[in-house]
Amino acid sequence: MQLNEFLKITELLDVLSGRLSASLNRLLNRKFREAGLEISSEQWLVLLSLWNKDKVTQQVISDQTAKDKASITRLLDVLSKHDLIERRPSSTDRRINLIHLTERGKELETKAMGIVRETFDQAISGITTNELIFTREIVCKLLKNLSIQPTAN
Hints:
Blueprint (H helix, E strand, L loop, with lengths): L2 H14 L2 H16 L6 H12 L3 E2 H8 L3 H13 L3 E5 L7 E5 L1 H21 L5 H17 L8
Antiparallel strand pairs: 1-3, 2-3
Helix pairs in contact: 2-6, 3-6, 4-5
């Protein structure tokens, strides 16, 4: 293998190993802090799930965010502590808790999503729509090859 080939593979592995994700998460976390929002990018992902559909089970959130149950429990504990969500028993099955956004959690959406949009705009600056579509197709193929279903948009 030539050095040039190796460098291309290394760059691909960097992206696949999470370097892009980690950089994006660090930037989001910094911008949330600077804006006075007491949430992390991981907590935002849970809130995003609830902003799309409130009053769901922890399992639904776990499925939508591709995070394991233990991680979701920890994230929900922190969000509850900050009065952004509440756990309430289901009216049809007492064994199940439904996760509800509080008023404070609902009010956070506009500001948080503005920060996310600004951050994603920064990330895709200089990239054409066709390049973004092509990249998405490639990532979906990679996930399919690994038997991981991409999350729905």
